[in-house]
Amino acid sequence: MAIGPSSVIVIVGIILALTYQSILKPPPPKLCGSPGGPPITAPRIKLRDGRHLAYKEYGLPREKAKHKIVFIHGSDSCRHDAVFATLLSPDLVQERGVYMVSFDKPGYGESDPDPIRTPKSLALDIEELADQLSLGSKFYVIGKSMGGQAAWGCLKYTPHRLAGVTLVAPVVNYYWRNLPLNISTEGFNLQQKRDQWAVRVAHYAPWLIYWWNTQNWFPGSSVANRDGGVLSQPDKDIILKLGSSRKPHLAEVRQQGIHESINRDMIVGFGNWEFDPLELENPFLNREGSVHLWQGDEDMLVPVTLQRYIADKLPWLHYHEVAGGGHFFPLAKGVVDEIVKTALNH
């Protein structure tokens, strides 16, 4: 008896389902505090949906600080990587009365994963963190690299809570609807081929990204694979100087698994956003705050051409281009102080 078309479809469906379950589907995250999971060592708040967000405080005590800043880390990082707190000069902390809190984004470090994470949910997470820590009606936000998705989310969804926003080498989504094709293509083509493909997968086939970044047949995302070979020379020089300074907590970054941390950053960062940052309006019409974007012109991870276009389309945004700077230019001596002072001097 011949097998009909419907039977073939069923068989193919079963094969695809089994393949997804055995190869493509990411393993469940290892939740902190669960049996066999990593221990809980950081202070955490409980969010509106029951998730927990781990955080770390720096600078002056909250109740004594004049300026309160929420720092959002980039990809493959965690709350310990708050370079805008650790590299901020003690004199500036005292002089300007600075308090800073860094938190593990969902799925990183000791924060629970959020499989339906969006720029909006990140903005609401930050607002809840600020409220539960009693940071006051307004606070500053600094978002670095992939932390930019949350900073843009704050500008869109919680502008009334912001005293100021600073984006530092924020990753640009090539699929923002108001980013012209020629501009996005130019920036896209400046990426390594491996990263071009990883971005495509994250956008068009996010269900495949776990396999893509963990298989050994060809290179996945350079960030997911921790391949520093794609970095610019200025970045390589900075990393060489840092040496092993990050190693004590490196294992903590991905301890719950790569999918709800690195991969989720990519899925959100290059997914279909419900708003376009290029349509945002100035949240500080009375000059009670300001928005700044800092970018190195030798950044091989985030093309400078994209930031120049954004700065041109958002005239209320203060654009600072760092000559000879790579993606990690804030790690150079004195740069963090300059960025923070600029943010506070609106």
Automatic annotation (TrEMBL):
**Residues passing through the membrane, by range:** none
Pfam families per UniProt: Abhydrolase_6 (PF12697)
Residue span(s) of domain AB hydrolase-1? 69-331
Which residues are the signal sequence here?
none
InterPro entries the record matches: AB_hydrolase_1, AB_hydrolase_fold
What this protein is called in its record is AB hydrolase-1 domain-containing protein
